[in-house]
Specification:
Length: about 400
Amino acid sequence: MTALYLLEPERPGPEWAPFGGVRPIAELRAGAWRIRERWEAACDAETTAILGRHVAGFSEADEPPIRNPDAVEGPAVVGAAWFAPAGERLPLTAARRLTHRGETVGWIVGAGERWTGPYETGDSVEVEGLRLRGAFDLITALEQFLGEDCADLRAAPGTGVPEGSLVLGDAAGVVVMGAAVEPGVVFDVRQGTVVLEAGVEVRHGTRLEGPLFVGSRSRVLGGFLRGSAFGPECRLHGEIASSVFLGYANKSHDGFVGHSVVGQWVNLGALTTTSNLKNTYGPVRLEVEGHRLETGRLNLGTLFGDHVKTAIGTMLATGTVLSAGANVFGAPAPPRYVPPFAWGCSGSDRVTAEGFLRVAERVMARRDVALTPERRRSLERTYARMAGGRAGG
């Protein structure tokens, strides 16, 4: 049996803010599925390990072990975590490399061989997918993959159209896998399939426009959701468009979130709103710790790192990056870059490690998730990497 390993960037640069050093790139969501899940489907194999120093000690839930990028014994495939395969099975032939548009994105290690690091020699086979230039390209991946990801689930066992729902388009585009849907919900499937996983609750006064994927045990509390993918245990309300929620995020109130990536355990205060288009209608540029990044995208909202919290009425400019653990308050319009564990929008105050862990434990308990010793140590390492142990408010 061929083993699967996923190689992380050696030192994720500012283009991977706000997730580099916080969680594996392989655990980010590209379309309905995580990058790791896309590789597993393409190779028909479970991941043996994620190879990456920048997230040493990361522990969360169901991720494979994290280890240093040491030697790999064949037979194995080593896939680049910055590449999201499309839905087709990869042709694992006698070639030594997987390439996409001339760039190596994977390595095939034969039986009895040893992989000791990336190489650019040997026969290659071309594979379909998306080469991710940074965290902002998770929106590009959403646009490229979500429609097909949701359509692939049309054959999944379901309960049919919920009683009292209004369907615009072909009813086969409504995929309900054990969700509870109140009467009066509108399913607009004229542009794509709507998928509700097990345990999802959708309340009256909600319009769901496909393609749309709502992960298990999430609650949709009203509003207009379209063209988005939501991980498990999210709380959703208001208008959300073309956005990726990794999971366990809370947006329970009005406010617009568009073309944004929302990390785990994020809490958006009521009326938090993102701008996703510049007044000039020009391409969006990110500014991260003095680095200017050209995204080439016309629509890009906010990148919310894990455990970010925003105050009521927060207004976020086009192309804003809120780093992990930041508490954003004190100004209606925060700067376009907020550093890790910031306390407020100005000055150098930081959340203390003790305060961060205390709040994280309270937040997780609200989703019946325990802050185990392993997860606590993982968050302690994240704090040390990203905040450098600096104390603050």
